[in-house]
Amino acid sequence: SSDLGYRANLVFDQIDRLNFPRRGVLAVAELHDADPSLGSDEEYRRLDLQSLAAWTTGRHTVVGIVHATSALGTTLPSSERVYLGGLFNLSGMPAGDEIGRASCRE
């Protein structure tokens, strides 16, 4: 399937190290607007927000990651839906076991 359309990215990066940050914030927003007039098979919009924050106290560092997706009132095709489960993504559940409800309303 084709998902041709418009894409916009916004990145805010203040982490101190690429491989294992000790402090700082990284935030990424990405908007994809699939447009049939450009050759997309379906019309939909998808907004992805991702954030990583790192805090260090003494020898201990905590790194938190948050990822959110919205269909912005449209219906996402199955290839664009958010699946949970697997390594680092609700690790106790099998990969693809749960689907985010906000991203796949039908």
**Total DSSP E strands:** 6
Q: Could you state the order of secondary-structure elements as H and E? A: EEEEEE
| Straight-line distance between termini | 19 Å
Overall pLDDT level:
86
The general outline is flat
The percent of residues in helical segments reads under 10%
How would you sum up the major sheet? 4 strands, antiparallel
CA-atom Rg in angstroms: 17 Å
Low-confidence stretches: 102-106
Fraction of residues in β-strands: over 45%
Oligomer: single chain
Structure class: mainly beta
Helical element count? 0
What order do the strands of the largest sheet run in, or round the barrel if closed? 1-2-3-4
Report on this structure.
It is a single chain. By secondary structure, the chain is mainly β. Helices cover 0% and strands 46% of the residues. It contains no helices and 6 strands. The strands form 2 sheets. Strands 1-2-3-4 form a 4-stranded antiparallel β-sheet, with no helix packed on it. Strands 5-6 form a two-stranded antiparallel sheet. The radius of gyration is 17 Å and the shape is flat. The relative contact order is 0.19. The C terminus is likely disordered.
